[in-house]
Design brief:
By secondary structure, this protein is an all-beta fold. The protein is built from 1 helix and 18 strands. The protein has one domain. Helices cover 3% and strands 45% of the residues.
Length: 247
């Protein structure tokens, strides 16, 4: 299968292959990491630098018992390398495709993907760049956070997913009938950018403690008596931005 992404991405793309025996970090593309590696659960993973745009097109073989975890993320590794939510600043991303079909839909203010959601630039502020396109902006999302999670399974069927927090507690469980069509799984329902504590950011301060407590930091996937665990590279607070399909 192919994963393709061309255009705006501020900041990161991660791709992880999961089997029942092990997890392999395949791709790590980051905007703000000045080092040549990213620390993923005590493992140093090679990191490639990108600068707000991405041109990615790569094929991956996927066995029936394997899964591909594809994530876009927001980070400021150069000033805050701790894997912990720490501030809402700016994020945007174009569509990410799997075999030519949208797996993770865009989050672009220029397309008005999230009408009314708080933006980075206010009405009277202008980006420091020449000739920005109309509506140029970013959504105000958490830094050091996974924003979108795509799970591609090597086979269709019934899966049970347990979503784990920092304290290794199950905070959400979802049974998913995985088909060859992409499904948007919303663990809390409502707005696509609802956060792990059930709130939707409206531009005012919220209780970061509860969001941190319930943000997803790992996923246990079960099917047919077998299970696997995949850890997130950063906490994942946007629990309605999960996209699933099978091959």
């Amino acid at each position: 299968m192919s994963i393709t992404m061309h255009g705006d991405l501020d900041d990161d793309l991660f791709i992880i292959r999961s089997t029942e025996e092990r997890t392999v970090f395949l791709e790590c593309l980051q905007m703000h990491n000045p080092k040549d590696h990213f620390l993923y659960r005590a493992e140093a993973v090679k990191s490639r630098r990108i600068y707000g745009m991405i041109d990615f097109d790569k094929g991956f073989a996927l066995a029936e018992d394997e899964a591909l975890f594809v994530m876009t993320a927001n980070e400021r590794e150069e000033i805050h390398p701790e894997k912990r939510l720490f501030a809402r600043t700016h994020f945007k991303s174009v569509d990410l495709l799997a075999d030519g079909e949208v797996l993770i839909p865009s989050l672009m203010p220029e397309r008005n993907d999230m009408p009314g959601y708080p933006l980075w630039f206010g009405p009277d502020e202008k980006p420091l760049m020449p000739n920005p396109e109309p509506g140029y902006n970013y959504y105000k999302l958490w830094e050091n956070a996974v924003v979108n999670l795509g799970m591609v399974f090597g086979s269709t069927g019934r899966y049970r997913c347990h979503f784990i927090n920092h304290d290794e507690e199950v905070v959400f469980t979802k049974e998913i009938n995985v088909t060859k069509e992409t499904q948007n799984i919303r663990l809390l329902g409502g707005h696509p950018l609802t956060e792990a504590d059930g709130t939707l950011y409206d531009g005012t301060a919220t209780d970061i403690t509860t969001i941190r407590e319930r943000a997803i930091e790992g996923v246990i996937v079960e099917k047919g008596g077998n299970s696997r665990y995949v850890g997130m590279p950063y906490p994942f607070p946007y629990v309605n931005r999960i996209f699933v399909r099978g091959l």
